[in-house]
Amino acid sequence: DTSKGRSHFGSSRLGSSHSAPAGVGDSRVGGRHKMVKIVKKTGRKGQEPVTRDYTIHMHKLLQKIQFKKRAGRAIREIRKFAARAMTTKDIRIDTKLNKFVWSNGVRNVPTRVRIRLSRKRNEDEEAKDKMFTLVQHVPVESFKNLQTETVKDE
């Protein structure tokens, strides 16, 4: 064996020297080159104002979070959820929602919370983001069989 002190992974004994399997990264079909059309997307679709109701399962987001940090973390998780759902950086949380999250103290955050996310146009002209999201609390008796619903704006 001539490969003293070296690993056998780089040796040519283990197969072809070509790194990728046949056909990967190859735009040739049957010996001919085919044209690959690349469609460029010009940014994301223009964001319209929209309002939707969501249920967030807070309990699963707060597992393994120490007691004295739970309510604060819950607010951050709601903010993160809203940013992902509405694709805006500017998230504004209503005081009623904040009071609901903190209602049982810092440790005992409600298991689920029903929220209304409203993507709105920024009235402030010199704002860096065109849209912002307002997060409001929707009081419900039961969370059973609730779906995400788009709310008709009046």
Description:
With 154 residues, this protein is an alpha+beta fold. 19% of the residues lie in helices and 22% in strands. The protein contains three helices and seven strands. The chain has helices at 58-61, 70-86, 95-102; strands spanning 28-29, 32-33, 50-57, 91-93, 112-121, 131-137, 149-150. The strands form two sheets. A five-stranded mixed β-sheet has the order 4-6-5-3-7. The protein has a two-stranded antiparallel ribbon with strand order 1-2. The chain is extended and about 70 Å long. 10% of the residues are buried.
Short description:
This protein has 154 residues and is an alpha+beta fold.
The spatial strand order of the largest sheet comes to: 4-6-5-3-7
Q: How would you state the average pLDDT, rounded?
A: 84
Structural class: alpha+beta
Estimate percent helicity: 10-25%
Low-confidence spans = none
Shape verdict: extended
Terminal Cα separation, in Å?
81 Å
Order of helices and strands: EEEHHEHEEE
Give the radius of gyration: 26 Å
Largest sheet: number of strands, sense, barrel closure:
5 strands, mixed
Number of helices: 3
Q: Work out the number of β strands.
A: 7
Fraction in beta strands:
15-25%
Topology:
Layout: E1 28-29, E2 32-33, E3 50-57, H1 58-61, H2 70-86, E4 91-93, H3 95-102, E5 112-121, E6 131-137, E7 149-150
Parallel strand pairs: 4-6
Antiparallel strand pairs: 1-2, 3-5, 3-7, 5-6
